Amino acid sequence: MHGFEFSLPTKIKFGEGAVASVGEKAAQFGKKALLITYPEDFFTKVDFLEKVEKSCAEAGVELIKYFGVKSNPTVEHAQGAIEIAKTEKPDVLIALGGGSAMDEAKYVSMAAPYDGDAWDFVEGKAAPEEVLPLVVVVTVPATSSELNGTTVMNYEKIQRKDGYANPILLPKVAILDPELTYTLPMRQTAYSAADIVSHLMEAYFGHELEWAPFQDRYSQSSIRTIMDCMDRLMEDPKDKEARAQMMWTASYAWNGFYPLGLGPVDNTIHVLGHSLSNFYDTPHGAAMSVTIPATMRYFMDTKTAKFADYAREVFKLDEEDDRKAAETGLSLTLDWFDKIGTPTTLEAAGITDSDAIAKMAPDALQTAQAWGLGDLYTVEKIEDMFNLCK
Question: In 3-state terms, what secondary structure has residue 56?
Answer without folding.
Answer: helix
